[in-house]
Design a protein that fits this description.
The chain has 281 residues and is mainly α. The chain has a single domain, classed as CDP-alcohol phosphotransferase transmembrane (TM) domain (Four Helix Bundle (Hemerythrin (Met), subunit A)). The protein contains eleven helices and two strands; from the N terminus they run αααααβαααβααα. Strands 1-2 form a two-stranded antiparallel ribbon. The termini are far apart.
Length: 281
């Protein structure tokens, strides 16, 4: 009897972790919309982003715990997606709305709705295409946690940028902070739109954590690791948006340049293969 009770208690652990993910999403929305009056605008936006990262921790743990306890089920997969909708498709929209107001509100809401819809489609497609016992080394389309983390990273670094503006550092640092704020306000809606498109795309993204755990290291993993370390050393907290933007937009940009290179090469070969007009004798 004691063994059965203990086993039943372990069964509920993955479910609690998944529900913790959904609770983090609700906490993020609450901070972005209601927390300003209590703890201030900067702190509210910071905690809104922090809740999303905490939700990413819960989202990463529930699957591993379920597989470790051999308690994977269709119910758990569906529950995971429902909580992901809250944390990774809805909550980031409120962060984007909190960080920028230079565009008309109707436009910002349209971009936010598009992000949410593409995130929901991404999760639905993932569930339909899910193969049992798949190691998930690669994703088709940008994963919703990565898209949400990209937007949340700007919220988490907001206090650091505010310190640059506080005048306690050099004039150059203050100007840097102003430039970061201005650039973020104008680029975030465009970035949100781009992230929405990448979520429903067919671009392959690596499951970095899964590959590292199984020891599937290669040269590109080493390059990414060096990039992250250098970014952390040079710009500290500001490295977070850089790292997430690199993961989200690095592969599409590389594929685009590869496509352009192939087109140029193909056009060059086509021109070289064409017969030259003969000169009149």
């Amino acid at each position: 009897m004691a063994v059965s009770i203990k086993k039943a208690g372990l069964v509920v652990v993955p479910t609690l972790l998944t529900l913790g993910n959904g609770a983090c999403g609700l906490g993020s929305i609450a901070m972005a919309t209601l927390g300003r009056d209590e703890i201030g605008e900067t702190n509210a936006i910071f905690y809104a982003g922090a809740f999303i990262f905490l939700g990413m921790v819960f989202d990463g743990l529930d699957g591993y715990v379920a597989r470790f306890l051999k308690q994977t089920s269709k119910f758990g997969a569906e529950l995971d997606s429902l909580c992901d909708v809250i944390t990774f498709t809805v909550a980031p929209v409120f962060i984007m709305l909190s960080l920028t107001d230079v565009f008309p509100l109707r436009f910002l809401w349209s971009v936010g709705v598009l992000f949410m819809l593409c995130g929901v489609l991404r999760l639905a497609r993932f569930n339909v295409e899910l193969v049992p016992d798949d190691e998930h080394d690669w994703f088709r389309g940008l994963p919703t946690p990565a898209a949400a983390g990209t937007l949340a990273s700007f919220a988490v670094t907001l206090p650091t940028v505010q310190e640059l503006l506080a005048g306690t550092t050099s004039e150059g640092s203050r100007q840097l902070g102003e430039q970061i704020i201005t650039l973020s306000e104008y680029s975030l809606p465009v970035m949100t739109f781009s992230l929405a498109a990448l979520m429903v795309s067919r671009i392959r993204y690596p499951h970095v954590l899964s590959q590292m755990i199984r020891g599937q290291w290669n040269f590109f993993h080493l390059v990414r690791l060096i990039f992250v370390v250098v970014a952390l050393i040079t710009v500290h907290e500001l490295a977070l948006p850089i790292v997430f933007c690199y993961f989200a937009f690095g592969r599409p940009i590389a594929l685009w340049f590869r496509f352009i290179g192939l087109r140029v090469r193909g056009l060059t070969l086509f021109r070289q293969s064409q017969p030259r007009p003969q000169e009149d004798s």
